């Protein structure tokens, strides 16, 4: 194939870096298999007899993969355990009975009998409840086998690959191994979706909102450029692996200041101990956003106080001695937390989410105390790990909400308490709200989606969710002016802080702490350290005055050269 024949598929850049590899397609989740029509009586034995071989086939395939040389031991242990489940007689026999007694089609019978197991495990709670997800995974694989369609979810990769999916659940992305998942491409999704954020935290190049990727065949060799946001087919024989040609600085040369001495904290967004180790590895000065909800996403019951404390301590330990800003549980909308049993809402992004789940005024009575237990565990975990703890609440809109949160955090023994600025009302209420807190941190991802009324997960609306939007920068400007008066430090922990040129704009607006995935920090630190404050302020002025994203980028490029 010559370069002129090569198809370039444009998308949205979501995680910087580039890699070449063969496409592995991620099958879409299966829906519920149809409940009918009923199998005629004289065919029920034959239909029931399909179930055990399907379970064995799934089990054999998983055993095979579990034995792949070089697979991490934890991964192969999980695969062996799950493979055994696929042949569990009690699961398969219950399904066979449904076929024989009621004429339920085999795929549906497996689905229904597994549902009973899942419900029983969830009711048992604790460790048993955590196995419910594994049963659901086995169920979907056996159902897929019976239907003759590919198994759902991210396949186990037996070599370096480029994953191509319609979209990926955060849980799927979190388990990816950068050694084999060289790059990610999603047909849907925006740059601030949690899948994109996780890809950045793992340092996996990613392109999202790439409609052309829907037509890529399994095995096609492609180059994914997550910095530019494009996928290109490359000739067979092109070397597979990370493309390090454009690699920039690899660590933060701190403490970081502008050339004339304005101190800017360069801190990391993390969710677990692995992220923390990466943050320590690049020389992050601490953590500007510890997202705690990601560890709650798969919990069927509230983790115990001891488990939470131990979990926080383990996450914080790699950064002992550095300050860590922990965000309390941000549940709801795109981050469902099963054990909170939140009632379905028509507009969950505009519903009881974030701090609203726990605030005395809006919370269901049995939920408010979940926050107090989390705060106590955070204080304990930070003491165990030897870090300086700050906490902040997500999705705050008013000064009263901020005051109630600050009171509860102080009662738990937290000294430095802040809130996130993610709702436009919080900016409009800044003079009163800032007076209640020790610091604020701007979540530009949510702030942008709420300013534009454009879901951050939406592919078609991805252009609205661009962190360079002047409308968002104008709000930040207004916030920083109010913060100058109250003397409140303003940080940014949304994805805007991960873009080196935009980071300079933020510094020019008055932001003094930039928090982003570890992989983004070295380039951000180097850019900030290369300018003086007056240049950053000029960049901020032209960006705020621009009519749209493209002119904001161009005007800042002119200023920064
Ligand atoms: C944000 O909204 O910008 C933010 C940092 O929080 P999250 O992405 O976790 O919603
Ligand atoms: Mg947010």
TrEMBL record:
<feature type="domain" description="PEP-utilising enzyme mobile">
    <location>
        <begin position="159"/>
        <end position="229"/>
    </location>
</feature>
<keyword id="KW-0460">Magnesium</keyword>
<keyword id="KW-0479">Metal-binding</keyword>
<dbReference type="Pfam" id="PF02896">
    <property type="entry name" value="PEP-utilizers_C"/>
</dbReference>
<feature type="compositionally biased region" description="Low complexity">
    <location>
        <begin position="10"/>
        <end position="29"/>
    </location>
</feature>
<dbReference type="InterPro" id="IPR008731">
    <property type="entry name" value="PTS_EIN"/>
</dbReference>
<dbReference type="Pfam" id="PF00391">
    <property type="entry name" value="PEP-utilizers"/>
</dbReference>
<dbReference type="InterPro" id="IPR008279">
    <property type="entry name" value="PEP-util_enz_mobile_dom"/>
</dbReference>
<keyword id="KW-0808">Transferase</keyword>
<dbReference type="InterPro" id="IPR040442">
    <property type="entry name" value="Pyrv_kinase-like_dom_sf"/>
</dbReference>
<feature type="domain" description="Phosphotransferase system enzyme I N-terminal">
    <location>
        <begin position="11"/>
        <end position="131"/>
    </location>
</feature>
<dbReference type="InterPro" id="IPR000121">
    <property type="entry name" value="PEP_util_C"/>
</dbReference>
<dbReference type="InterPro" id="IPR023151">
    <property type="entry name" value="PEP_util_CS"/>
</dbReference>
<dbReference type="Pfam" id="PF05524">
    <property type="entry name" value="PEP-utilisers_N"/>
</dbReference>
<keyword id="KW-0418">Kinase</keyword>
<dbReference type="InterPro" id="IPR036637">
    <property type="entry name" value="Phosphohistidine_dom_sf"/>
</dbReference>
<dbReference type="InterPro" id="IPR036618">
    <property type="entry name" value="PtsI_HPr-bd_sf"/>
</dbReference>
<dbReference type="InterPro" id="IPR018274">
    <property type="entry name" value="PEP_util_AS"/>
</dbReference>
<feature type="domain" description="PEP-utilising enzyme C-terminal">
    <location>
        <begin position="254"/>
        <end position="532"/>
    </location>
</feature>
<dbReference type="InterPro" id="IPR050499">
    <property type="entry name" value="PEP-utilizing_PTS_enzyme"/>
</dbReference>
<feature type="region of interest" description="Disordered">
    <location>
        <begin position="1"/>
        <end position="42"/>
    </location>
</feature>
<dbReference type="InterPro" id="IPR015813">
    <property type="entry name" value="Pyrv/PenolPyrv_kinase-like_dom"/>
</dbReference>
<comment type="similarity">
    <text>Belongs to the PEP-utilizing enzyme family.</text>
</comment>
<protein>
    <recommendedName>
        <fullName>Phosphoenolpyruvate-protein phosphotransferase</fullName>
    </recommendedName>
</protein>
